[in-house]
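pls read this stuff:
=====
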Amino acid sequence: MSRWVPSLLTLTNLFFGLIAIALSENGRVGAASILILSGMLIDAFDGRVARFLKAESEFGRQLDSLADVVTFGVAPMAVLYSLCLRNLGIFGALVGLIFPACGILRLARFHVENGPRRYFIGLPITAAGGVSAALALCYNLLPEPSVFLPVCVLLLSFLMVSHVRYPNFKRISFPQSALIGIPLLALGVYLVVRYGHSFAGSLVVLAFLIYLVFGAARALRKQRFDKEESLDEKSLPPSNVNP
């Protein structure tokens, strides 16, 4: 029975995504965004629980990817399309299609990567979908949202298929991760109830922004280091070796 627990968690994540899509079609973007962010927490635990219960399987990995595409690829764009992208005509539709397409490419690359995954190559679709949902929550606080949101979506799409390295927090195993996740969930619920969607969404965006900047800054630093190292090698005088 325990081997089905991770799959049940993954299916819950999938159901959250499907419900979020339905809610966004009815204009309930706040509730839809909260479901997407809740799906993030579930997605953070299903793999850890599978490893903890020794219930990892190829079926579970494929199911997790399908759930990720729905909850963090399609659902966030359904929310943003209902919110503002639909008013941008064909351009808005293209933006809404590019995002899940890049997410699928990101997941496909993830599955063919070999070796230990100490970091993610490219922004995980979970994080990209979470940022999109959080932006929808604080929509009223954004400057020129009809311009700002499409630009953010295209940037997130690019980061998903980029080679920028991001920290892999999935290395924190269960049940230690629960000691972090459960208090964060309680804090999130409190902030939504106490201060409303916009304030809570702003804090989530800030947290993701730190994550995004960390990955980009690390990539720029590595590129600069490699360039300086290459210049140093070229500046070295040729060695005179007598045969």
User: Anything to note?
Assistant: The mean pLDDT is 78. The two ends are 72 Å apart (CA to CA). The chain has eight helices and two strands. Helices lie at 5-25, 29-52, 58-83, 89-112, 125-137, 145-161, 176-195, 197-235.
